[in-house]
Amino acid sequence: MSLGAAFDAFQKQVDANPTQVTEARERREMFKTSLGGESDVVEVWGSGSLRRSTHIGPKIHDLDLVVVFNPDEHPGWGEPGDSAADALNVLGGKVNKLLGATNGTVAKLVRIASPRNHAVKCFIDLPGDDNGFTVDAMPALKHYGALLIPEKNSSLWISADPLYLVEEVKKRNADWDYFLRMVRVLKAWRKRAEVEGKVKSLVMEVLALHHLPGGFSRPEALKRFFTAAATAVGNGPVVDPAGLCGEIQPDLDRMGLRNSLLDAADLADQACDASDEGHADDAKKLWREVFGTDFPAPQGKPKAGPALIVPAVAPRPIKDAPQG
Question: What is the pLDDT of residue 323?
Fold first, then answer.
């Protein structure tokens, strides 16, 4: 198996099952059709990774929707106070009326519709089910080319523009056909990062948007990404690319992520050198260290020739540093 074929095989492990993608899109359309028929709803559209095609597998567990309301039908929405919670309750009531598992008039699909901070979390399966499917439906108002969305915890409405990232990702993939696939690969890699807590997938997607170069082979692009992303994370927080919502993950262990990116950069650099020198099996071993056992291992007996000595990458000590 060539190195390119190994990356193709790894991609299949990363990507969601096509059947799962089809089912998620069908559920999204059901929500869009049902909620879009309400007299006070202007439009309903998908957001999140499914909309951007950056979701990973093996199973899709959730999807995101934006439900844009007519402000004339809801005086006071968009203003500080109880209107934030009211918008979430109104949307939750519509979900129960239209799609509730007991009395839904369109389909009996949603077991529980629970208003959260920004969205109504709709449980298709029982809460706590590890394989359960949820839909996050977020009420919104149009506002100067972007959106106002409720924030129940603060009793405020905040500005957001989820379509900005949708369009930017689309542009990047038009310029480089591998962009979406490599974003999914990097989202899978984040689970291997040695950090306190976890790294949100959106953090990796935004880092890829800014630091994953197009026009290179997949190995070369990944090598350059790991180095550039490590520098970026070390220099400051990862923020909303639309410039509206600030830091994406305030509790991110930035130094842990930076060090993990640097370790991956070291391995990726060695892997690219090994490949350039004709040591394909050594390159696969190194990429397997980066991505884990889902990346194919070399098969068969190695060809005769000088062996490449690969230095081990020592874990980087995590130093105390300001967390912006």
Answer: 22
Separation between Cα atoms, residue 28 and residue 23, nearest integer Å? 9
**Whole-structure pTM over 0.85, yes or no?**
yes
In whole angstroms, what is the distance from residue 217 CA to residue 210 CA? Answer: 17
CB 179, CB 212: distance < 8 Å: yes
pLDDT in tens, 37-47: 999 999 999 99
Q: What are the angstrom distances between the C-alpha of 217 and each of 170, 179, 182?
A: 19, 11, 11
3-state secondary structure of 284: helix
Helices (H), the chain: 3-14, 18-36, 48-52, 83-99, 162-175, 179-189, 201-211, 218-235, 254-276, 280-291
Give the integer Cα–Cα distance in Å for 156 and 41.
Answer: 21
The string of DSSP codes covering 194-229 is: --SS---HHHHHHHHHHH--SSS-HHHHHHHHHHHH
Give 202's contacts (C-beta < 8 A, 6+ positions apart). 248, 249
- The pLDDT value recorded for residue 129 is 74
